[in-house]
Write a structure and sequence with these properties.
The chain is an alpha/beta fold. Helices cover 40% and strands 20% of the residues. The chain has an eight-stranded mixed β-sheet. The two termini are 32 Å apart.
Length: 429
């Protein structure tokens, strides 16, 4: 079992705070293991008895009866009847207790939320739920749970977690991670073929199946082609209309942008992809479109494309984006306007891109991702947008180039990718 101390500490900090602990993330990322094994072991070792932990795995057919919210309420209340004791209630993959009609009809109340709010009123119960759909859980915290919910997002293994559990040296671990990503179960598999087949099966047997059943997807092939299209264009600016044209061309028949927009939301709700919006650094505003999409796990991205498009630049950018989210930063794509003179002396405006703007509290970083900084021309291209930003927040270039971290004469931190991934405080150097 892989220790995941960051998430365990968050659960411990939020214990008995009078709020629902909502553990979200893509399926098979380790949410259930975190709650049912790691956190449960912590509680048992802290003196909590087995009978004081009430756990229901709703994705298990044996517990199908509890997919009815009223049965959950009845069962939990019976198990927690002794008011002199304190109970921990674990509900795993809670989206199985929300039916299609409740999803489709926005005016129809979701019964599960009433049950959870009811359980919150019981002073001897501490409630924890996991879910693999952002729309049905984390997006509803402030409304349906009346602000009485704390979201803990569990990502697939970060590189530091993967490296620590792999037994490989840093370079071999990185190469493995770049290819297959950080799904925890991969560490139990030895052959490349087994890893490929496992990741491939996740799409068909879990992710696509979940989306198609939950949202009644009428064009499943479009959903699959859309997924491949986004995986192929990681790190590229795009929007629903552009993707619709690409998918229509691949299928040989028209697909409208409204369908693509809806399917994009489904993929994001299932945590398969995240969207990074563009932010105008000088104008301090967001652009409506286009945006960039990143895959929750690079291994899933690579396998979806059959390992055919191994553009290391885009893979490195995707890993960097995911790492920033894992560390708790909100992440945007930066845009900065510069005025240049052409050969005739005419002034023209140009928009330069900063790969990421990472924010957390009072922290803010401008970050460029580069495969290599060995070539002077490449260096100038990467540094140009950072130089155009005139505020005092730290500017950083993260590249695959090996060597110690250093700060150049312009105050820009240069750091190699592996050191960045293994040092949780690397941005604060």
């Amino acid at each position: 079992m892989i220790a995941r101390p960051i998430y365990l500490e968050k659960l411990i900090d939020k214990k008995w705070n009078g709020r629902i602990k909502i553990i979200t993330g893509i399926r098979r990322s380790g949410k259930s293991t975190l709650l049912f094994e790691i956190y449960k072991d912590y509680l048992l070792n802290s003196g909590v008895s087995e009978s004081e932990i009430i756990a229901i795995a709703l994705d298990d057919d044996i517990n199908e009866i509890y997919r009815d919210p009223s049965e959950i309420s009845k069962y939990v209340r019976e198990k927690c009847a002794d008011k002199e004791k304190k109970y921990y209630v674990f509900l795993d993959e809670i989206q199985f207790a929300i039916n299609k009609e409740e999803i489709r009809d926005k005016d129809k109340p979701i019964r599960l939320y009433s049950v959870l709010n009811g359980l919150l009123k019981l002073k001897n119960i501490d409630v924890y739920v996991t879910g693999s759909n952002s729309k049905l859980l984390s997006k509803d915290v402030m409304t349906e749970f009346r602000g009485r919910g704390d979201v803990i997002h569990v990502y697939t293994l970060s590189f530091s977690e993967f490296y620590g559990a792999s037994g490989l040296d840093k370079v071999d671990a990185y190469n493995e991670y770049v290819m297959y990503g950080g799904m925890p179960y991969l560490l139990q598999l030895d052959s490349d073929q087994d890893k490929f087949e496992y990741l491939e099966s996740l799409f068909e047997e879990i992710y696509f199946k979940d989306i198609e059943e939950r949202y009644t997807v009428l064009l499943p092939e479009v959903l699959r082609n859309l997924t491949s299209c986004i995986c192929s264009s990681i790190g590229s600016l795009t929007n629903a209309s552009k993707i619709a044209r690409t998918v229509s061309s691949a299928k040989g028949k028209s697909v409208d942008s409204e369908t693509i927009s809806a399917y994009l939301e489904y993929l994001q709700d299932g945590f398969l992809f995240s969207k990074a919006e563009r932010y105008d650094v000088k104008g301090k505003r967001y652009f409506d479109y286009p945006s960039k999409y990143y895959c929750t796990d690079v291994g899933l991205r690579n396998i979806r494309l059959g390992l055919r498009q191994q553009e290391e630049t885009h893979i490195l950018e995707n890993i960097l984006y995911n790492e920033l989210l894992y560390r708790g930063y909100s992440v945007d794509v930066g845009v900065v306007e510069v005025v240049e003179k052409n050969e005739e002396g005419k002034r023209t405006k140009k928009l330069l891109e900063i790969d990421f703007i990472a924010r957390k509290g009072t922290e803010k970083y401008y970050i460029q991702s580069a495969l290599s900084m060995d070539d002077l021309e490449k260096q100038e291209a990467e540094l140009k947008s950072l130089r155009a930003v005139k505020d005092s927040f730290k500017k950083i270039v993260i590249s695959k180039s090996y060597g110690k971290s250093w700060v150049d004469e312009e105050g820009i931190l240069r750091i190699n990718m592996i050191d960045f991934l293994l040092d949780a405080n690397s941005l604060r150097r």
